[in-house]
Amino acid sequence: MVRLLASVNGVNEAETALLGNVDIIDLKNPADGALGALPPQAVREVVDFIAGQKPVSAVCGNLAMDPGQVLKAAETYAATGVDYLKIGLLREPEAAACIRALGELAKSVKIVAVLFADQEPDHELLPLLVENGFHGVMLDTAEKSTGGLLRKLSVDRVARFVAQAKALQLKVGLAGSLEAPDIPRLLPLEPDFLGFRSALCTSGRDSAIDEDAIRSIRLLIPEEVKANGAAPADFRLLARGYTPAEVDLGTDKIFVREFVLPMEIGAYSHERGRTQKVRFDVTAEVQRVTDNPQDMRHVVSYDIIMDGIRTIVASGHIDLAETLAEKVASHVLANPRVVRVFVRVEKLEVAPASVGVEIERVRQEGSTR
Ligand SMILES: O=C[C@H](O)COP(=O)(O)O
Known about the structure:
Layout lengths: L2 E6 L2 H9 L4 E4 L12 H11 L5 E4 L7 H12 L5 E5 L6 H7 L8 E7 L8 H7 L4 E5 L8 H4 L2 H13 L3 E4 L8 H4 L6 E4 L14 H10 L14 H7 L9 E13 L12 E12 L14 H13 L6 H13 L4 E10 L7 E8 L7
Parallel strand pairs: 1-2, 1-8, 2-3, 3-4, 4-5, 5-6, 6-7, 7-8
Antiparallel strand pairs: 9-10, 10-11, 11-12
The chain binds glyceraldehyde-3-phosphate.
Function: Catalyzes the formation of 4-(hydroxymethyl)-2-furancarboxaldehyde phosphate (4-HFC-P) from two molecules of glyceraldehyde-3-P (GA-3-P).
Pathway: Cofactor biosynthesis; tetrahydrofolate biosynthesis; 2-amino-4-hydroxy-6-hydroxymethyl-7,8-dihydropteridine diphosphate from 7,8-dihydroneopterin triphosphate: step 3/4
Enzyme class: lyase
């Protein structure tokens, strides 16, 4: 299940977030950047106000990578009674010593490390976080005015980060000026939570959060549904395409055309260890879910197709264009609303003309992939 974390600046906003049914109330001072902390007393007030209705996290401030200072701040905020502490780790050699300094405290409070997508996050810190008992890790952006997470780090790199953290049993969160169209792109990566501030505000990150804005984000992150004691919804399925229509409205086609990427491909030895340009054309036939599409729940985003291609291309050398086409088709059909997909893969640098393959694949009856 992917949880919705909302960053709030005090009791009033915490109440709004509670009404919006977010999953985690995160405390920070947005006016002081990605890691601006509220005074400990203000954090305590929110912890008392929430009174266990939702988990509460707090950031510990814009800390220099000084182990003593980091530990002191963490102890101060741990004493407020929050469920999670968020500690920002800058891309500096002392970050490792700061992690070690928190090892003892991590036995009594859940600590989540925050790494920045715009500072080349250091994957080598992940095992160290585990060794020192950290609960989780999240990617955020330090600079909020220059675009969101997926503009700072390509989707395949975010996917690799999530997969690596999960393989180490760390809880993993993603944030960074996330907007509605980012959500269907990030849900398939199955992070443990997605974090928001800017998208919840009426006019900019420093303005107040707004109930309607929270609601529109909440709608895009499936909540755990348990009806009559039935098994919880399959979030992997929901995450890939939201709820399929109950009545048959027919299909539409979405497409990505002339998407060219350099990649390692080819069965010849001279094609190894170098990239060549490959062009992708994909058309997906998708079930319609409404006559009145209004938000990301109602569409299958073409970004998901491009994200899949980028991730497949980044995964390493592929010998055959046929293998590549099958992988792309399979990725697109992973979305339960896609009933048929057409994929053309063309190698553009092989011969005087382009060469490649076209395939068409259809969802098998009853298959959820
Ligand atoms: O922890 C999450 C952040 O508060 C997200 O803030 P943002 O959406 O403004 O980047």
